[in-house]
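Appendix B, example 12.
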Amino acid sequence: MDMRPRISTALKEAMKSKDAARLSTLRLINAAIKDRDIALRGEGDDGGVTDADVLSILSKMVKQRQESARAYEEGGRLDLAERERAEITVIEDFLPRQMSDAETAKAVDDAVTETGAESIRDIGRVMGVLKGKYTGQMDFGKVGPMVKERLAG
């Protein structure tokens, strides 16, 4: 599932169909990926951006837009909130399906079992396993407290 060619193909299709809103969002995605590429080169990593990195970038972009949309709604700028939601829709086209609460709970249990985690101190190992397997499929802001609760209980 090579993400970069998928995004490039979608970008070309948006250009051909003259879909300005989709095109602008896809350009933002490409810019974010290129920024990450440049940052990795600066750190001496010549391997470039992996698909996992792209999924992480896309997840972060969705979260930023959700926060912006909320802020715009609170400020009475429904037009801007709607534009943010439209961008979220485009970005989510490239993310895997989000896991349900039940699937997430099972994944947390499996990760705890796999790592042999027994206490709160093991949260990092459990989160590492989850991020390795499920990047882009779950909201780690919600998963962190679930892992903490599971290990505390």
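The chain has seven helices and no strands. The mean pLDDT is 88.
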